[in-house]
Specification:
Chain D: Its main location: membrane. The complex is a heterohexamer of chains A (218), B (252), C (309), D (295), E (268) and F (295). By secondary structure, chain D is an alpha/beta fold. Chain D has nine helices and 14 strands. Chain F has one domain: MetI-like fold (Orthogonal Bundle), CATH 1.10.3720.10. Chain F is built from eleven helices and no strands. The chains are: A mainly alpha (218), B alpha/beta (252), C mainly alpha (309), D alpha/beta (295), E alpha/beta (268), F mainly alpha (295). Chains in contact: A-B, A-E, B-C, B-E, B-F, C-D, C-E, C-F, D-E, D-F, E-F.
Amino acid sequence: MGKVFDEEIVTLKADFMKLGALVSEAIANAGQAFIDHDVAAAKTIITNDHEINHLQIHIEKRSFEMIALYQPVTGDLREVVGILKAVTDLERAGDHARNIARETVQIKGEPRISEVETIIATMARGVSEQYDDSMDSYGTADQAKAKETARTYDQKMDDLYNDIAAPSYQAMAKDPDIVNSAIIYLNVAKDLGRISDYSTNICEWTVYLATGKIIELN
Amino acid sequence: MSDPIITADNLDLYYGDFQALHGIHLDFEPHQISALIGPSGCGKSTFLRCLNRMNDMIDGVTITGMVKFHDQNIYSPQTNLVDLRKEIGMVFQQPNPFPFSVYDNITYGLRIAGVRDKQKLDEIVERSLKQAAVWDEVKDNLYDNALSFSGGQQQRICIARVLAVSPSVILMDEPTSALDPISSAKIENTLLELKKEYTIIIVTHNLQQASRISDKTAFFMEGRVVEYDDTSKMFVNPDNKQTEDYVSGRFG
Amino acid sequence: MQNQKLAKQLMKKSKTARYERFGHLLSLSALLLIMAIVLGIIVFVATKGLSTFFNDHISFKDFFTGTLWNPGTKTPSGHQAVGALPMIVGSFLVTILAAVVSTPFAIGTAVYMTEISPKRGAKILQPVTELLVGIPSVVYGFIGLSVVVPFVRNTFGGSGFGILSGTFVLFVMILPTIVSMTVDSLKSVPKYYRQASLALGATKWQTIWKVVLRAATPGILTAVVFGMARAFGEALAVQMVIGNAALMPHNLVSPASTLTSVLTAGMGNTVMGSLQNDALWSLALVLLVMSLFFNLLVHFIGRKGAFKK
Amino acid sequence: MRKRTVIKWITALVVVLAGIGAYSVRSKTATNQQSITAVGSTALQPLVEAASEEYSAEHSGIFINVQGGGSGTGLSQIESGAVQMGNSDLFAEEKAGINPKGLVDHKIAVVGVAPIVNDRVGIHNLTTRQLIAIFTGKITNWHQLGGKNLPITLINRSQGSGTRVTFEEYGLKGHESAVAQEQDSSGTVRQIVSSTPGAISYVSFGYVNQTVQPISLDGVAPTEKNVMDNKWKIWSYEHIYTRGEPKGLTKQFLNYLKNRHIQTTLFNKLGYISVKDMHYQRTWQGKISKGSGES
Amino acid sequence: MQKLDQQSDRFIYEFNPEETPITMQTKDLEIYYGKSLAMHNADIQFEKNTITALIGPSGSGKSTFLRSLNRMNDDVATVNGQILYQGVNINQPGIDVYEVRRRIGMVFQRPNPFAKSIYDNITFALQRRGVHSKKVLDEVVEKTLKQAAVWDQVKDSLNKSALSLSGGQAQRVCIARALAVKPDVLLLDEPASALDPVSTAQLEQTLRQLKKDYTIIIVTHNMQQAARLSDYTVFFNMGEAIEYNKTRKVFTRPKMKLTDDYVSGNFG
Amino acid sequence: MNRSQKQSRIAIAALRGIAGFVVLILAFLIGYIFITGLPNVSWHFLTTPAKAFTSGGGIGIQLFNSFYLLVLAMLISLPIALGASIYLNEYAKDNWFTGMIRTAIEILSSLPSVVVGLFGFLLFVVQFNYGFSIISGALTLTIFNLPLLTRNIEETLSGVSDDQRQGGLGLGLSKYETIIHIVVPAALPGIISGIILCSGRVFGEAAALIYTAGQSAPALNFGDWNPFNIDSPLSPLRPAETLAVHIWKINSEGIMPDLTKVSSGSAAVLVLAILIFNFSARYIGRKVFEKMTSI
């Protein structure tokens, strides 16, 4: 296939990486805003989510067109299919970052549990790192790094989730006033957990991109 | 996995001093469509023609190695060429019906084999035209000159002509390259039906075609088989870089 | 503005267009010239040939059914002795026999040249056939006289002069024409017909017989027509070996004559415009009509018997 | 590409010029009488041709074309005035379709015609009656005449040929030959007679050679001397006709032909008999009278 | 700027001539072979510096349409209606077809180099038009062969017979040959159908380059080729232009059911 | 080995037999001509003029005449045949009229050459007053030659792929330019074999020339190449007996003693000449083709 496909795939990948960067920013900022109780930053994230959605739709459309027009095979096929699949994960990860931003707005004025928030902060950083590593591995089609990332973070993030969930439930049982906050903590942890899952998915697509094999990494 | 019906073993072919095929080893399984792909001059057509000894006609061709058909080396001196070609039929690039009626075209192979029984001939004409999925289009014009039909119909008549002598293997040398997409699609559908009863080996330039219809694909380059595997693998995740470049169109 | 300029450029007759007009006219005039020649000859032969009937008042019946040829005199029964039947029959017989004999040989040779041994065919047979076309008919005639006639006399009896000798000589004379044209038509049969046939398990012979020859039939028929045309028009050689006697041929070894041989022999000894001369032109006219007939006949057979390529 | 166009035009030009040139030169030479043409009898052709060669050798720049075509052609061409001399084996009066008015006869030579047979026949002499019987198809085998048991093969010259007319008139006494094979040249006749057992035909004396057997008639041998004395009856004049009295080159050439020197040297070599040597003359109706008849 | 002709079930994209330079345009075109109507309803505009692909089943009239654009059909068909080339109707009496064909060049299905050297193949038409300066011809040869992306392969064998070239090279030499007479528009009639995939890819590459300087109209029966190569696609069926739109649209969201069926291979 | 294969072997053996038989016939013919003829061929024979009635004559002038006439006839007929076949194959629509023209041309080719000769005689020799001359002969040969040559060229032209024509038209060239500069060169090898075949016929033709180019070969002045002088070898107006006519003439009316020698020698020379002509035409054709295909 000619140069045009190659040019288009470069653009597509650039768009995808741009989307990755936007989502990465959203994840990082959402975690930070939650910890800092920064409503303004959270609102920015919510607004910016539109951009992510637009970009995702654009990338999907381009991918469909490329499949329709060029009928790629082998590496090209994996490139387009990988992006087409991973872009959903990115967008969803972005959605969860937006959810976290919403929780940041909701939790404003509620009582806090500082030890839980410390763990959330750890988890947010971890998830953000995991996401970034996943995207790095995708960007370089580095399946070793992808597997490594999945192995490193997956269990860790599950553990962190439990570390957040347990004190939150305990707090809820003890103090009815804290229920709202605790639920929000649980939601945030869940969002972070999902982002971690999507990152793992991205790692799986990295493996597909590199080898054409579809595997489960967790 | 069943036993291969045709096996090429260490097959070399020379045009004079020029070696066109280098130690080809390929197995073809029954009731499958195997596609041979590769750039022009890679030897895929030459190889195909080795399988029913159509290269024998060309001056200065030397062939070494073996082609086994049901465990029998077709290059052994005992081989009866005429019988061999009845077992291993061939369809060519250009639709090439003889300039006779459709009926005469289909019955040609039978008549030269001495079949005279009109009723039997009629049956076979109907059967093979139906198998080649062209019966409905020609049944009312069986006695018209085959050349008066469209290219796609002509090619299917040619397929029917091969089917009429009941071969077990059909070799096809770019059977759709002279046809428009609709006719090609019809031929492809025909082939997918035929593979239930026949073994089909097809040379094609059209990579999408290979990917659409074949079970196995062999990629030839410079007289060698670079890669031979399941088509699904060849088009998603080939082992060889050259194969990948070729099937993705980045070649040359 | 721009458009008008362009329109002007496009409307201007270019040099190329003038070339085309010139070339068209040039080739048309060449064809018209040939047509004029053909028509001229046909009209010429027709007027001369018909004047036997219209100026000299010979009846068609005497001409076509009479068997005595001595224009200017009367037959014992009182008719004009202008019976052309012996020559017509002689011409027919010798042409058809020559065509019948040489066609299988020519086809066999052509098949050999194209299908069996193309290399040897191109190297030896083709130049030789082309060479034979150029041997003057007088030479053929003399070889016929010194080789064929004694051979026929010793083998089949009679004087040796007759239709059989004429056939043998014409056979050799028209062979090159038929061979080279048959070779052309065999070569124009696409290679893939042969491949398809072989791939269906046909033997080489079956392929040649059932596919190649069948597909080449129109071309072969044309070749035969041209061969017959040459046989028809041949005079000097035939005249020497056929005996050239205006007798109804009773068998193949008794002297007979053809239209051309009588025509050629008599032309110089008659005076333009005399009955003797007009009668000869009538023979030429008959020849013309007969070759037209053969032409149409073979084209008709060709169209019926074969398919469009 | 351009070069070829130029070449093509040059070729076309050359052809056109050659055509025009040819026409103009033609008319010029025709009026200057630098070249004259004699057409007709193939029997007379070698003689006139040989004479013209000698004449041209003696007179440079003179061109005498001698063409065959047969007596009929010669007469009709001279009648239409297309040529200067028309050669004929026959009197113009004898030829159907010719108006002899205005044609001037120049009798150049006398030619004797002899019956010839294949030398395996074994017969050297025939009577006139036997000859007539043979040629009218009444006798069909040589053993009927005391020769070998060989069927007789008749070979005639073409109808209208001067030799045949002469032979039928004086050899067969006016009987017409039966329909048999015909040849339109003496050479071919001789060749066929020499190679066909039992063949009989007739040629002018010039063509008789060792390959065929000449026949004496009624004991008279076909010799020039017998012709001069009219003992051998089968002979005829060779005529050159002109349209009106000859002028210029034509006249000079005709005189040259009639010149004693030519008539004695060339004629003998070619088997013609000089008119001057004849002791008898004959009119076109066949009347014989004494005298050479030379004009 | 678009019209959806509900009655005839056709969708034809239209340009705004104010904004978009249009090189060629057909209006009310009707093409007859003898008495039979082979082509009608094809009012198409061709934008400058684009590639337009004409697709459709065999006998749909796409080649007929293409050939009438530079009047190559003159001898075999009767063409009614207007064919506008830069606003001038070239389908009218008095038009010099040779000048039209010079400006609207054509490349054919099978590579058809003349039995001449490569150099002469390219310069032949110019020489016939009276250009004989060696310098000018040399320049043209180099320029067009470079444009056709075949210069590097043939520059050392310009004097060799063009018949010795491979199919792909020969086809690009044919393109160079067409470019040598400085056309505006390039018509291509299935130019890659006789070529293998590698040569086809190279040819497509060449065409993409050429689009900068020419308006290219290509008939192809390879839909992938139309898809990956062209900017606009016209879908013909039964002698009618059914849909004319941007290629991306035609191949992802065709407006017509018929087009949809055809490009997705569910046709016939 | 089954039945059909046996049948095939037998049939192919039979074909080989037929081809072998034909080769034998041909070999016999050529061998006969050469064996009887070549011993009589010498340099002297090839260069001296013919003698009418003495031995020792050659065929120098006849040989020259044959070639000159052939070249002239081809120069005239080739452009006409080319033009006509171009019109028939490229311009003419395929209808009954074209069919009629083709049939007429085919019929013309079956006319006995003597009829063509007489036509030429009446038209060129008499009507145009070219006399018995090379130009009359060449024009008559043109008539004789045109049908076959036209048909041959037309056949070859129709064998050139339409792609080539479209290529030319697509470049904005006229049909005519395309034909002349592309189609004709592409058809050149075929045209050349057509010319060779026709040349063979022309070379061996006698009957058409007897009445047009004449049967005499007057001595030529080989020092004078001005075509307007009548004794120049190039003069189109001189009578010119060709080799084939010479063979015919000496066999039918020749009276020289060494007739058979001259005749068989001439035949051998004729065949040799055709041989040389064939090879050189092929060679030149190949060279021209190479030149045109790669400069």
